[in-house]
């Protein structure tokens, strides 16, 4: 995740782990900040986590309202019921929800 080799990172976003940089990067893919992680028809959401203003983890909302994320670079994806299920510890707390209109297939 983030501005590392092998990850897609827009040229317009600073190449650091700051929340503001992730918001700029996500905006290039149609995401904008939103208030909650509540499921909404026709909307895709992601959530960014961190201990301060540094992003340390992210999750993506699934169509059924659950969330999916990867715990570490080499680990398998997990599913969790709410964004708070992985809050705390090394990943920190929810810093920002982002949403975009769902892409059509």
Explain what the structure shows.
- This protein is mainly β.
- It has a 6-stranded antiparallel sheet.
- The longest helix has 9 residues.
- The mean pLDDT is 91.
Structure, briefly:
The chain is 9% helix and 31% strand. It has one helix at 19-27; strands at 32-34, 43-50, 57-61, 67-70, 77-80, 93-101. The two termini are 25 Å apart.
Defining key terms:
single chain; 105 residues; six-stranded antiparallel beta sheet; 9% helix
What topology, given as strand order, has the largest sheet?
1-6-2-3-4-5
Radius of gyration: 13 Å
List low-confidence stretches.
Answer: none
The general outline is globular
Helical stretch tally: 1
What class would the helix/strand composition place it in? mainly beta
The sequence of SSEs as H and E is: HEEEEEE
How is the quaternary structure best described?
A: single chain
Average pLDDT, to the nearest integer?
Answer: 91
Helix content: under 10%
N- to C-terminal distance? 25 Å
| Main sheet makeup | 6 strands, antiparallel
- Number of beta-strand segments: 6
Percent of residues in beta strands:
25-35%
